[in-house]
Amino acid sequence: MRQAKNRIAELEGILREGGVRVTRQRAAILKILAEAEDHPDASELHRRAKEIDATVSLSTVYRTLSALEQQGVVQRHAFENATARFETADAPHHDHLIDIETGAVIEFRSDKIEQLQAEIAAELGYDLVRHRLELYCRKRKD
Amino acid sequence: MRQAKNRIAELEGILREGGVRVTRQRAAILKILAEAEDHPDASELHRRAKEIDATVSLSTVYRTLSALEQQGVVQRHAFENATARFETADAPHHDHLIDIETGAVIEFRSDKIEQLQAEIAAELGYDLVRHRLELYCRKRKD
DNA sequence: ATGCAAATGAGAACCATTTGCAACTAGCTA
DNA sequence: TAGCTAGTTGCAAATGGTTCTCATTTGCAT
Ligand SMILES: [Mn+2]
Ligand SMILES: [Mn+2]
Ligand SMILES: [Zn+2]
Ligand SMILES: [Zn+2]
Fold it and tell me: Is the pLDDT at B101 greater than 60, yes or no?
């Protein structure tokens, strides 16, 4: 809990630095995001945030997510035919494996792949700015 | 040209096999797709198809693309905040590098990455069904 | 040629996300 | 501490790519 509080305070600090006001609504959304262990979409975040502050509107959730994304505090994912999902951007970079039966999202990281991507871009005369790697899988049955 | 004609005939054959009628509109869309060297979206395909058959409607473009996708003849891509783009699925598998300044799409393939992906899925207890790998890049300036 | 299930065009519907606007309010100022 | 004001909010309407509805047309097997 101490952990989470620090993290939230830190995030709020980043916002204030960026000239973004920390309103009641934004604090609620930020707390939800900081505590989330999954990859909720806007309406799920809305549902959760309302438990903290019932006045939060879906519009504000969207506006806040855009602001947080712009501040680099939140990351947006657009998985295959699904609404956008979000997570805080404080964890080290990772990519995602999506279970196509259950929708479960599993995180992973491959330094080899990360490096290969940069090499490929370089070979083609480009600098890699960001990438998207998603594995759509089915649980192995043996 | 011979090449293209064969390819189109072949694609039409696949459709008939699948019990999908080859209409005037579908033939036009198929021809455009077979000749396309880029990754056009639905409205661009519509624009091009109308030059062959002016009656083609955007609805039919969408419906045809869905049908072709289901037959495995066409592949749909949903790049970062952009409309869906399409290409025939007869070329060997490849992934895409997107120039974030110009929007240009460049194809590439890395057998190493392909293999690593399968390994990662396996390690997590999954079978890789399909994946999405996109590199968002900026032209290197030196 | 005929019959009929499949396909079409036009426009309405969908739906996640964005936006306009009048009422609030965070946070600096005096 | 009260006041000021630009940033923020809730609500509702707008957006825009894509899908759907339905009356009409058409591919194609017989
Ligand atoms: Mn994640
Ligand atoms: Mn391609
Ligand atoms: Zn990665
Ligand atoms: Zn690939």
Answer: yes
- For residues B13 and B66, state if they share a domain: yes
What is the reported pLDDT for B5? 66
Asked whether residue B142 is assigned to any structural domain, the reply reads no
* A79 shares a domain with A102: no
Give the mean model confidence (pLDDT) for residues A60-64: 97
Residue at A14 is within a domain: yes
Mean pLDDT, rounded, for A86-97:
95
Give me the pLDDT at residue B3, please: 58
The residue among A137, A138, A140, A142 with the most chain B CBs within 10 A of its CB, best to mutate, is A137
* pTM (2 d.p.): 0.90
CB contact under 8 A, A126 and B99: yes
Residue B15 pLDDT: 76
Do B50 and B108 reside in the same domain of the chain? no
The string of DSSP codes covering A82-141 is S--EEEES-SPP-EEEEETTT--EEEE--HHHHHHHHHHHHHTTEEEEEEEEEEEEEE--
Distance CA B30, CA B40 (A): 13
**Is A69 an 8 Å CB contact of chain B?**
no
- Contacts across the A-B interface (CB distance below 8 Å): 106
Question: Do A79 and A119 share a structural domain?
Answer: no
Domain co-membership, A103 together with A73: no
